[in-house]
C-alpha cells in the first residue's frame, strides 16, 4: 500500500456512528468499515439497527449496535458507556442523528422547534462532550464528524417551511468551528459535512413531489447525491489523510453553493 492510500487506512480505529440504520449514516458506516474501522452504530429502533448491522457484516464489517434516543440525556449517557465498553475507546464520532419539520415560519409549532433543535444540535454537544471526556481527551486523539447541511449555509429560498432545520444546521456549522478551536490541543479534529440533496427517508416526499429534474435546477453537476457520494469526504475527515484539517465545513452538493 502506497503512502497516500495508507493515510486513509482505519485498521485499528474504532467509530461510533449515530443515525446509522439507513441513509447518510449507513453510507458513512460502510465507508469507515471498508477501511478497517470497528463500528458501533446507533439509532432509535432496534429492528432497523439489526437490519443495518447484518448489511454491514455481509460486507465484512466488524460492527455492533446500540439502540438509543439521542434526544434523551440518559440515552446519550448509556450510549457513551456502552460504546466505549464494546469498542474499548472511540476514535471517530460521527454525529449524524437528526430530524426535520415542515411548516411556515409564522405557523411553526414551538414544540416542534424544540424537538428539532434538541436532536440536531443539543444532542451533538452532549454526546461529543461525553465521548471526548471519557475517551478522546484521555487518549489525546479523536475525529469528530458532524452532519450539517447546505441548508445551514444560507437563508431559506422561498417558502421551504424548514426554519427550525435550517437554523439547527447553521448552529452545527459554528458548533463545529468552536469545538475545533477548543479541542485541537487534545489532538482532536472536528469537521462537518454539509450535504446537498440526497435521497433519504427525510427527503423522499420532496423528491416525489418535485422530481429530480426540478431539484437539480441550478446544480452545476445536474444531479443529486447518491449512495457513494459522502464516502470520500467522510474518510478524509476520519483518517490520517485529514490530520491537519479541523474546523472545516465541506459542502457535498454538486456545486450548488459555488454558484
TrEMBL record:
One of its GO terms (molecular function) is oxidoreductase activity. Residues 13-196 form the Ketoreductase domain. The keyword Hydrolase does not apply. InterPro entries: KR_dom, NAD(P)-bd_dom_sf, SDR_fam, Sec_Metab_Biosynth_SDR. The keyword Secreted does not apply. Keywords: NADP, Oxidoreductase. It holds the Pfam family adh_short_C2. Belongs to the short-chain dehydrogenases/reductases (SDR) family. This is SDR family oxidoreductase. It comes from Afipia massiliensis. The lineage of its organism: Bacteria, Pseudomonadati, Pseudomonadota, Alphaproteobacteria, Hyphomicrobiales.
Amino acid at each position: 500500500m502506497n503512502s497516500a492510500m495508507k493515510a486513509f487506512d482505519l485498521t485499528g480505529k474504532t467509530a461510533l456512528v449515530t443515525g446509522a440504520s439507513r441513509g447518510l449514516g449507513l453510507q458513512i458506516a460502510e465507508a469507515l468499515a471498508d477501511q478497517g474501522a470497528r463500528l458501533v452504530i446507533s439509532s432509535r429502533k432496534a429492528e432497523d439497527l439489526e437490519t443495518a448491522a447484518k448489511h454491514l457484516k455481509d460486507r465484512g464489517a466488524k460492527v455492533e449496535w446500540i439502540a438509543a434516543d439521542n434526544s434523551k440525556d440518559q440515552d446519550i449517557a448509556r450510549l457513551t458507556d456502552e460504546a466505549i465498553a464494546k469498542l474499548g475507546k472511540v476514535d471517530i464520532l460521527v454525529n449524524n442523528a437528526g430530524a426535520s419539520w415542515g411548516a411556515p415560519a409564522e405557523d411553526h409549532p414551538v414544540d416542534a422547534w424544540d424537538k428539532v433543535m434538541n436532536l440536531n444540535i443539543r444532542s451533538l454537544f452532549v454526546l461529543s462532550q461525553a465521548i471526548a471526556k471519557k475517551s478522546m481527551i484521555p487518549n489525546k486523539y479523536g475525529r469528530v464528524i458532524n452532519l450539517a447541511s447546505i441548508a445551514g449555509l444560507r437563508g431559506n429560498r422561498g417558502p421551504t417551511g424548514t426554519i427550525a432545520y435550517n437554523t439547527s444546521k447553521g448552529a452545527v456549522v459554528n458548533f463545529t468551528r468552536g469545538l475545533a478551536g477548543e479541542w485541537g490541543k487534545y489532538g482532536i479534529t472536528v469537521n462537518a459535512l454539509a450535504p446537498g440533496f440526497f435521497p433519504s427517508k427525510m427527503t423522499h416526499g420532496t423528491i416525489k413531489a418535485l422530481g429530480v429534474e426540478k431539484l437539480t435546477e441550478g446544480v452545476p453537476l445536474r444531479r443529486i447525491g447518491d449512495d457513494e457520494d459522502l464516502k470520500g469526504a467522510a474518510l478524509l475527515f476520519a483518517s490520517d489523510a485529514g490530520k491537519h484539517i479541523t474546523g472545516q465545513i465541506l459542502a457535498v452538493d454538486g456545486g450548488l453553493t459555488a454558484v
